Amino acid sequence: MPTRTRCPRDVTRASRRGPTLHPHRLPRLPGHTALPVQHRAEAPSGLEAFNSAGPEDARRALLACCRSLRWVHRIAEHRPYPDLGSLLAAADEAAYDLTPADLAEALAGESLMALPDGAYSAARTALNAAHAAYESRFGHVFIICLDDVTPEEAADRVLAAIRSRLANDPEEERLLAAEELRRLARGRLTRLLREPCGRPALHHAP
Q1: Nearest 10 degrees: Cα torsion 199, 70, 66, 162
Q2: What digits encode the pLDDT tens for the residues 64-94?
Q3: What is the extent of the structural domain holding 75?
Q4: Least crowded by CB within 10 Å, which of 57, 128, 177, 201?
Q5: In this structure, is residue 89 part of a structural domain?
Q6: In a domain, 154, yes or no
Q7: Same domain, 95 and 120
Q8: Is residue 162 part of a domain?
Q9: Which residue has better confidence, 84 or 16?
């Protein structure tokens, strides 16, 4: 059979096809909300979708990043943001301005880190005991940002951090927890906009 020679139109069409990104799942959080996957080339980016989303949809998405209502409302009300860097700077500033009550509200919405499948029972026992000791001393769940840690190293990093921070006084630990919360919110917000997981949540305002 004669082979078909690709015409310039075929090449043009092929060049327009971008790579297909696999969906990325955010950590499971209470009230988890994420942006929808954009299926069409002309669909808005994650930041554009966030900027144009209705107020309630934007606030729900932000609550997946930080459970402080003050933080959420402040970021949602200052839209639109010209780029991701501006949004992250606003998120950092809002996190630095949280009052002790705001921080307590945000910490109350956090959950314990889930151990990877196959973690040995001794690790589970040690972590459960460490978490219990931490909560008894400070009155809230232990949080730590593990964005730069592999899943295999996470349990050891958490256990070592809890044992180290148990020696802090309450005010020192409050400041450390606030910093970890800021880092967690920044990472979650970045993943929310750059790698949406595909669950429909944000809708454009009419």
Answers
A1: -170
A2: 999 999 999 999 999 999 999 999 999 999 9
A3: 26-105+187-194
A4: 128
A5: yes
A6: yes
A7: no
A8: yes
A9: 84
Structure token pair of residue 67? 């459970």
Summarize pLDDT for 104-123 with one digit per residue, the tens. Answer: 999 999 988 777 666 677 88
- Total domains in the fold of the chain: 2
The tokens for 163 are 């044992």
Q: How far is CA 25 from CA 22, 33, 65, 199, 203, in A?
A: 10, 11, 13, 10, 19
What are phi and psi for residue 204, nearest 5 degrees? Answer: -70, 140
Residue type, position 142, single letter: F
Flag whether pLDDT at 187 surpasses 80: yes
**Nearest residue to 32 via CA among 68, 9, 8, 64:** 64
Query: What does 94-154 look like in DSSP terms, one character per residue?
Result: HHHT--HHHHHHHHHT--PPPPPTT--HHHHHHHHHHHHHHHHHHSS------TTS-HHHH
Q: Cα–Cα distances in Å, from 10 out to 19, 43, 127, 149?
A: 17, 23, 58, 45
Same domain, 118 and 166: yes
Residue 119 sits in the same domain as residue 90: no
194: Cβ–Cβ under 8 A, 6 or more apart, which residues?
A: 46, 84
Q: Give yes or no: residues 87 and 34 share one domain.
A: yes
178 occurs within a structural domain: yes
Q: What is the largest CA-CA distance in the chain?
A: 81
Q: Among residues 43, 38, 104, which one has the least CA distance to residue 69?
A: 104
Task: Report the CATH number at residue 182.
Answer: 1.10.3330.10
Distance, C-alpha 96 to centroid of its chain = 17
